[in-house]
Each structure stands twice: as structure tokens, then as C-alpha cells.
Write a structure and sequence with these properties.
40% helix, Arc Repressor Mutant, subunit A, SH3 type barrels, elongated, 329 residues, DNA binding, 4 domains, alpha+beta
Length: 329
């Protein structure tokens, strides 16, 4: 909302007010603006010309954003090129994804959605608001209820600047707070939660450990910087392809037989998966994955999957299934 008083004809303040309301998607009528600022219409026309020239210069004459006269609405408005600005369709899609993720508490979710919707054209804001109205009303945030924006930002900076961090962390299986010295290499989101991916200081582990951000009670980003050997160089995209349920473990190559409903769902779930053979309606699939999480996912496929290799992992799966059977005896 503009804080400039009606009737204030000071040129800098007048230009700021016009610029602000144009950015908010409002339609500006020359006669109404002249009355608002107690100046003549020629003065407003010169203001509009200056703002138009600013956009031409600021956006390198490439028409990404233009100040145009809309004959239907009888006023001036900003026209943004779809390839450079979020469209109302994109804003709606992002809003839907955010709500489904349940990743933020109610205050942070509302803050995000309100700012997103403000990017839409004024006449489209009502439509987007109505479409997601029910989902917003019944939004069910996660139990931890913590603010995450600042935490995500701080750890992302530590990753980029390669700075050591100290954290006080509580595991899901314990109420005891543990202090850890970490070398952070990534911050990612997966299935409801944000995670810090980090190597433990002075540890011989050749794979990173996953920490849920909301379980970090306190943290301190140190001035000390770290280096990761090239062989341990962490790439978030590659990590995502190989991890399930954010459980790491050793990286391994597995082969399994699948005869469930949708092989496509398997390939979507395991981006490194490759079909190496097909026997009637049964597929032989191989994939490179981290051990602990993949075991949980494979078990979720019930009787429609059989692990073939490695033999040690096949044996481990068999023992787990036998223990599960014991639960029903």
C-alpha cells in the first residue's frame, strides 16, 4: 500500500507512488492520477513517459516488461513477458505443490502463498485464491511447527561457503541432545522434510549423513572452512537419484525382478534404474542406490518383487521377511 498522501505533488514521491502501484498490477488512469496529486494531465503524461523510459533502459530494450495503455480498461498497466515472469497458471501450480508438501508451518506457508498470489494480475488473484481456498483452510502442517526459512538459508550459505557447523541434534529414536561437528555439503527437501547432508568432522565414513533440519535444536556456523576430497565431492542431484526415504548407508548396485502393476512407477521412483531384461510380464531391473533406504522401499512392494543381487543383500532381505512373518505367527 502506498504511504504517499493524496495531493502531494512532489515529483519524486509522485513517481514512486505511480511506480509502486503499477508493480502491484493496478490500472492507472491519467485523469484520476492528475486529481490525486493536484497536477495537470500533462504532468502525469510526462511521469508515465519517464517510467516507460526507465523500463526500456532497465530491461535492455528487450520487451520483457513494458508500460502500455490498455484501451479496454482505459488506463496504463505493466505488461510482463510470460517467459520472464510467473504466469497465473504457474503461480497456481506452485501454490498447489507447496500446500501438498506440508513442508512449512502455517505462518510461513501463508506468507509464501500471499506473496506468490500478489505476483499474479489483479483480476487473476481472486481466481487463484478461490481455487486454493479449501486447501488453505484445511492445511495440516507437520507436528514440529518450526520456522524454517532462516535455518534453510543459514545452512545453504554454510554449504556454499564450505564452513564447518556445530549442531545440537535430537534423533527420532532418542530424546537425548547430541552435539555434532559437521561439514555441510547440501540442503535438500524430500517427502515433507528439509534435510542437511553433511560429513562428520574427523570421521572415516565415505558417505554423508542425513540430518532433519527441524530436529536441529541449536547451531553455530564457524569461521573455519573445510575441504572435501574430489572422490567425496557431493552433488545434490546425483544423491537424490540414489537415496530412498533419506536413509543413506553404503552405495551399492542392486538387481531385482519386478512383476507389479507399473514398471513406469519403478523407473520414476529409482532414477538410476535400468531395465536389463524382460521375461513375459516380469522385468529385471538394476540400479545404483544407497543401502538402508532402498531396503525399506523394496519391502513396500510386497510379493511383487524379488532381490537377485548382491547375494549378501538378497540374504538380508530374506531374513527381514522371515522376521516379518514371525510377527503374524
Amino acid at each position: 500500500m502506498s504511504i504517499i498522501n493524496r495531493g502531494d505533488s512532489s515529483k519524486p514521491l509522485r513517481l514512486l507512488s505511480i511506480f509502486e502501484r503499477l508493480n502491484q498490477g493496478k490500472i492507472l488512469n491519467k485523469a484520476e492520477e492528475a486529481e490525486r496529486f493536484s497536477v495537470d494531465k500533462k504532468t502525469i503524461q510526462r511521469d508515465i513517459k519517464e517510467i516507460r523510459n526507465y523500463f526500456v533502459g532497465a530491461y535492455n530494450y528487450n520487451d520483457k516488461i513494458k508500460l502500455i495503455y490498455d484501451r479496454k480498461k482505459k488506463g496504463y498497466r505493466l505488461k510482463r513477458e510470460d517467459s520472464s515472469w510467473l504466469t497465473q497458471k504457474e503461480i497456481l501450480a506452485i501454490s498447489k505443490v507447496l500446500l501438498e508438501s506440508r513442508s512449512f508451518n502455517e505462518a510461513e506457508m501463508n506468507q509464501l502463498l500471499d506473496k506468490l498470489i500478489l505476483q499474479a494480475e489483479p483480476e487473476e488473484r481472486k481466481h487463484i485464491t478461490e481455487v486454493i481456498k479449501s486447501e488453505r483452510f484445511y492445511y495440516n502442517p507437520l507436528e514440529h511447527g518450526k520456522d524454517l526459512f532462516e535455518v534453510i538459508w543459514d545452512f545453504s550459505k554454510a554449504v556454499r561457503e564450505k564452513k564447518v557447523v556445530e549442531v545440537d541434534y535430537i534423533k527420532a529414536t532418542s530424546s537425548e541432545v547430541k552435539k555434532r561437528c559437521l561439514k555441510p555439503v547440501g540442503v535438500i527437501f524430500s517427502e515433507f522434510y528439509f534435510y542437511l547432508i553433511a560429513y562428520i568432522c574427523d570421521s572415516d565414513l565415505d558417505f554423508p549423513i542425513v540430518y532433519r533440519l527441524d530436529r536441529i535444536q541449536n547451531y553455530e556456523i564457524k569461521a573455519e572452512r573445510f575441504r572435501i576430497p574430489y572422490v567425496k565431492d557431493f552433488k545434490e542431484g546425483e544423491f537424490r537419484k540414489r537415496v530412498q526415504f533419506m536413509y543413506t548407508g553404503k552405495l551399492m548396485n542392486i538387481k531385482f525382478k519386478f512383476w507389479g502393476r507399473s514398471i513406469e512407477a519403478i523407473l520414476d521412483r529409482l532414477p538410476t534404474a535400468e531395465i536389463v531384461a524382460q521375461e513375459d510380464d516380469k522385468y529385471i531391473v538394476k540400479a545404483e542406490v544407497y543401502g538402508e533406504g532402498i531396503k525399506m522401499w523394496l519391502l513396500s512392494q510386497a510379493e511383487y518383487l524379488e532381490v537377485i543381487e548382491p547375494l549378501s543383500f538378497r540374504k538380508e532381505m530374506k531374513e527381514t521377511v522371515e522376521k516379518m512373518m514371525g510377527n503374524y505367527n
